[in-house]
Amino acid sequence: MQRRRAVIAVPLVCGLLLVGTGCGGGKSSKASETGGPEPTNSMERQKFAKTRFVANAGLASGAAYKWIIKPYRNGSFKKGADGRTGALIKAGLAGTFSYNRFKAAINNAKGDPTLSKAVAPLSSGIDSLKGLTTKFRKGEATDNDANAFDKVIGNVKDAGKGAGATVTDQVPSFSDVQKG
Which residue, of 76, 80, 107, 152, has the greatest Cβ tally within 10 A? Predict the structure, then answer.
């Protein structure tokens, strides 16, 4: 009887030990929290800062161009235009997405001294975009509003290029834009 208990107990204890050691003890690493490895020295921080800036600014400019500037110039937002309601909804979502990505790009730029200095004056222009998304969604946008997005995109691209971080448009999928 004792032998039978030992045969059952030994695998049970081993299994519990394996499961217990597999648990992390409540510690979490930075890599798992941010979705990737963290830079370890100042050189890596600068490299990642530029890369993140370029990615976020590229997504923001790509979304703004595809769903705001281009449709506006094509007359998709005018009363009576085919697909106007859908275009306005997409413009509102793309505007919010672009604003959020531009804000993230400015935060990313803080990790690189040269890039940080180059984009510092752009914060007020990016903040001005926040109210424009509502105008587009409601169909109240004017030429000046579309040009404001275009101007901010140009300023961000110029600032990035001057700091060695060339920004190119990267059009996100519309499902990405919907998620924010």
Answer: 152
Kindly give, in sequence order, each residue whose CB lies less than 8 Å from that of residue 130, ignoring residues fewer than 6 positions away: 99
Q: Is the pTM of this model over 0.85?
A: no
pLDDT in tens, the chain (180 residues): 555 554 454 454 444 444 444 444 444 444 444 444 455 555 555 568 899 999 999 999 999 999 999 998 899 888 899 998 999 889 989 999 999 999 999 999 998 888 989 998 888 889 888 888 888 878 888 878 888 888 999 999 999 999 888 999 998 988 888 886
**Contact status, residue 91 vs residue 67, Cβ threshold 8 Å:** yes
CB atoms within 10 A of CB 159: 23
Report the distance separating Cα 53 and Cα 108, nearest Å. 5
3-state secondary structure of 6: helix
Give the integer Cα–Cα distance in Å for 93 and 129: 12
CA-angle at 137, arms to 133 and 138, nearest 5°: 120
